[in-house]
Amino acid sequence: MATEPGSRERPKRSRPNINDVAKRAGVSRATASRVLGGYGYSSQEVIERVNQAVRELGYEPDRIARTMRSGKSDVIGFVCADISDAFFSAAMRGICDVALREGSQVIVMNTDDRGSQERQATKVLLSHKVDGIIITPVSVREHGHIDAVTRAGVPVVSLDRQLSDSGIDSVVADNEAATAAAIDHLIGLGHRRVAFLGSVQPEEPPALRIGKVRASVAGPSRPSHDRVRGYLRALSAAGLHPDRDLIALVPHDEPKRRMHAVQTMLELEDPPTALFTADSYMTKSAFSLLSERGIAIPGDISLLGFDDLEWTTLVRPRISVVVQPSYEMGRAAAEQLFAQIGRNAAPDTDPRGRRTVVPARFLERDSVAPSP
Amino acid sequence: MATEPGSRERPKRSRPNINDVAKRAGVSRATASRVLGGYGYSSQEVIERVNQAVRELGYEPDRIARTMRSGKSDVIGFVCADISDAFFSAAMRGICDVALREGSQVIVMNTDDRGSQERQATKVLLSHKVDGIIITPVSVREHGHIDAVTRAGVPVVSLDRQLSDSGIDSVVADNEAATAAAIDHLIGLGHRRVAFLGSVQPEEPPALRIGKVRASVAGPSRPSHDRVRGYLRALSAAGLHPDRDLIALVPHDEPKRRMHAVQTMLELEDPPTALFTADSYMTKSAFSLLSERGIAIPGDISLLGFDDLEWTTLVRPRISVVVQPSYEMGRAAAEQLFAQIGRNAAPDTDPRGRRTVVPARFLERDSVAPSP
DNA sequence: CCCCAATCTGAGAACGTTCTCACATTGGAG
DNA sequence: CTCCAATGTGAGAACGTTCTCAGATTGGGG
Q: What sequence ranges are listed for the domain HTH lacI-type (chains A, B) (predicted)?
């Protein structure tokens, strides 16, 4: 009723609030809130009148006001390097599914693996009063900004990487064990010269890239390191000595250097009979180069990769891979986060942080054969 | 100073607010806010004292309270079918990049192409007071819930699909033109029997899948329809008549039926000499089947696909494709959304909604050859 | 008949911000 | 000297919610 003359500028008509509901139901705001919140006492009649009013007005509570009052926002943050990356977008889906079940929403922020962006992201999320944060931290050592989050009483779960010396929960794949098993598989097939080709983050200290692999690889969990460790462990378990020439670690943002690393490996005097490519970037580069050069897989050389990508079953031969369950890892991280949120961020349970390790699976396909 | 005895239960120590800043600077809350907001008059001395206090306390304004007061949240929503899909996650990245520049964050919600989820998502986002929504709507006809969003004064941009009879902005690829050009290319190479293999949404009316393709394909922009239209247009421009047997549209969530559609096509009495696969699902299925069957591409049959996926350059032959610039589409949608937000959601500019069409590119590779 | 517990309700505070308004205090022009 | 504009400041309202508290009304047990 009462359509004002200038019905054009209606957009100013804002959503009904709880006062409107109360008025329509003929009760006070407190009573309406009590009915909606389902606490305290309310007469049956009032309950019905309020619900009726809610329906008639199409009332939806304002989550901002609710957050203001309660401190709980029903929003969590996901901080990752790049949401368009297949691993992160799959994990994101897992996170979203759990969040939906919990009645929460997810804010995503990309860091491009830059510490400054990450620090900014945590600040912003905190000022949005998120209930918790899932993060794939750029650095496993410098995590002052992340500690600040937990200190503010906001739960944090670290995904895919583990922070050293912090009580922060983490969800990681068993990269070391899975890699060791894969390498062991190759050794079992008679391979004695197995190359390890992996990527590292651009920010990583160059020490890792050249000398003292074993030492520099020690420390907190980070996929690239753990996989090197797994490689070394399998070798040593089989009584083989690691050969510096058969290990290459290049920054993941330099495709040319990746190609070059594979190339160098193939031109060795005593070349490897099997390639273990420790991540999707490297697997792709190696496969490209091999097929460009007309080198037969697995006839001339065996190829075993990490990460299951769509194309690994589309190319011939189909590539055998160790696959990280990215969706499930996202789910697990979210489950753990909501568990923390539920018990009100009690930071006392385990001083070293709960660590969830999810198994990576080995998918045998056609790119690996016995050593000639 | 003054570390209380029970310094264990510190987490209750909440972040400093603007009152703390004001107190420390020895001014009123209003003055502190004025300095921080940079409006009105403030003496140089007070400005410095306030900034000093901000630094000392590490004060960060509470965005929830700010939203409460101003109605602007610096958050936008992205509603898509599935964030783990390559198209959406790339678009998401584009959206995030623009949002970052604008000082906003992005909440993602998945619908799995279900109308109920989508309606729910818009409600939730509205109650979070988002400044705008980018959406890939499930249905191009039933958009009452989306109209409700604009009616609430919240800008909306539709991505990849266009809503019929609504003033809602959209960003879409020129699917029809790009498809027509691709088909034309095939015809130019002598192909007379070109098959069209595409997917449709599960919810889509079966009418589309069987008869009267041309008629049912009319209407608002939606990639699957536009591509069929482009196909028909190119055929007709070349004086060719469409053959019902050479057109297959199957729900994208039924891989078996996809395979079956390709199979049927190949077993036709007068089989096609070229396959146009109108989306990534179909391209993958067709390539798989062809290579399984040992059918030579492009020797026995030419293959031309839609969507550029990583593997299309990894397999042999490399697949020629029409590629949709997903990242740029996300960017464009976000740009348009913030433009609307900037001019305060004036819904008066163009009653039919601004339509941004971004060109799809044709990438010629090795999977297309002249007709034998 | 009185009292107290149980039931029901509403007034009002609080969350942290922004911003309007009113009230000083200047100093220069007339 | 007077007046007014320019400059500087603070009190307090408002956003929409939740929830504590106190007050009112019942009814049953003593």
A: 16-70
Per-residue pLDDT, averaged over B40-63, amounts to 95
Give the whole-number percent of chain B exceeding pLDDT 70.
89
The CATH homologous superfamily to which domain B71-173+327-358 belongs is Response regulator (3.40.50.2300)
Instruction: Identify the CATH assignment for B11-61 out of 1.10.3720.10, 3.30.70.20, 1.10.260.40, 1.10.10.10.
Output: 1.10.260.40
More confident residue, A259 or A10: A259
Retrieve residue B60's tokens.
């960060």
Q: Which residue has the tokens 């009653």?
A: B351
* Nucleotides, chain C, CB distance < 7 Å: 7-21
**D16 C1': nearest CA residue:** A65
Nearest-CA residue to the C1' of D18? A69
Question: What is the CATH superfamily name and number for domain A7-61?
Answer: lambda repressor-like DNA-binding domains (1.10.260.40)
Residue that is written with structure tokens 């040319």 in the block: A256
The alpha-carbon gap from B148 to the nearest alpha carbon of chain A, in Å, equals: 11
Position B343 scores a pLDDT of 82
Residues 6+ apart with CB under 8 A from A94: A326, A327, A328, A329, A330, A331, A332, A333, A334
Q: Which residues of A touch B280 (CB under 8 A)?
A: none
Q: CA-to-C1' distance for B46 and C27, Å?
A: 21
Q: Do B65 and A68 touch (CB under 8 A)?
A: yes
pLDDT class for B210, splitting at 50, 70, 90?
Answer: very low
Q: Which nucleotide is nearest to B30 (CA to C1')?
A: D10
Closest CA to B228 of B260, B271, B201, B199: B199
Mean pLDDT, chain B, whole residue set: 90
Chain D bases closer than 7 angstroms to a protein Cβ: 7-21
Ranges of CATH 1.10.260.40 domains, chain A: 7-61
Checking each nucleotide's C1' against the CA of A22, the nearest proves to be C10
What average pLDDT does this structure show over B259-267? 95
Contact A182, A117 (CB under 8 A): no
Q: What CATH number should be reported for the domain whose range is A175-325? A: 3.40.50.2300
Fold topology of A69-173+327-358: Rossmann fold (3.40.50)
How confident is the model over A233-253, as pLDDT tens digits? 999 999 999 999 999 999 888
Inform me whether the C-beta atom of residue B292 falls under 8 Å from chain A C-beta atoms: no
Domain B175-324 - what CATH class? alpha beta
**Residue that wins the pLDDT comparison between A165 and B220:** A165
* Contact state of B152 with A109 under an 8 Å Cβ cutoff: no
Q: Which two tokens stand for residue B152?
A: 């609430």
Flag the least confident range among A83-87, B174-178, B199-203. B199-203
N- to C-terminal Cα distance for chain A?
87
The predicted model gives B10-35 an average pLDDT of 87
Q: Are B181 and B362 in contact (CB under 8 A)?
A: yes
